[in-house]
Amino acid sequence: MTAFELAQVNIALPREPLDSPLLADFVAALAPINALADRSPGFVWRLGGDSGDATEVRGFGDDRMLINMSTWTSLEALADYVFRSAHTEVMRQRRTWFEAVREATSVLWWVPAGHRPTIAEAEARLASLRASGPTPFAFTFKQPFAAPAADPST
């Protein structure tokens, strides 16, 4: 067991309400894609609300914003899910469903194993990435940072 897990958050602003015809395919894909994540190697946890997904969770200063947050055992495990699974096809359609945003909409960071990040933590990490670029505090797939070294005194 490792001392750290990788946390990720990504946010998206839908072009229309979730119950609109434009978003029907996205909404239909939520449960299967979440189930795929849940059974993917390296998956640990994902943010969910009463519905089992996070569509009713609010944050990032806009009640329309959709939030996806999860933790993984490694950067490689998350990358395999994001870029080398059925998730990739859903990502290809994102411009149909979501507004284009000029700022970063996703961020990665390391958390102690077993920690469940909060929306406030995710907001701070994304704000840091937007303000300072990738750092060990908040980074991206393109510019990742290794997990912190475990404290040898513990």
What do you see in this structure?
The chain is α+β, with helices and mostly antiparallel strands. The chain has one domain (4-132): Alpha-Beta Plaits, CATH 3.30.70. It contains five helices and four strands; from the N terminus they run E-H-E-E-H-H-H-E-H. The protein has a four-stranded antiparallel sheet with strand order 2-3-1-4, sandwiched between helices. The two termini are 14 Å apart. The mean pLDDT is 92.
SSE diagram, text form:
Layout: E1 4-12, H1 24-38, E2 43-46, E3 66-72, H2 75-83, H3 87-92, H4 94-97, E4 106-112, H5 119-132
Antiparallel strand pairs: 1-3, 1-4, 2-3
Shape: globular
- Kindly report the CATH topology: Alpha-Beta Plaits
Oligomer: single chain
How is the biggest beta sheet arranged?
Answer: 4 strands, antiparallel
Mean pLDDT: 92
Radius of gyration: 15 Å
How many domain units? 1
Strand order of the largest sheet: 2-3-1-4
Helix content: 25-40%
Q: Note the total helix count.
A: 5
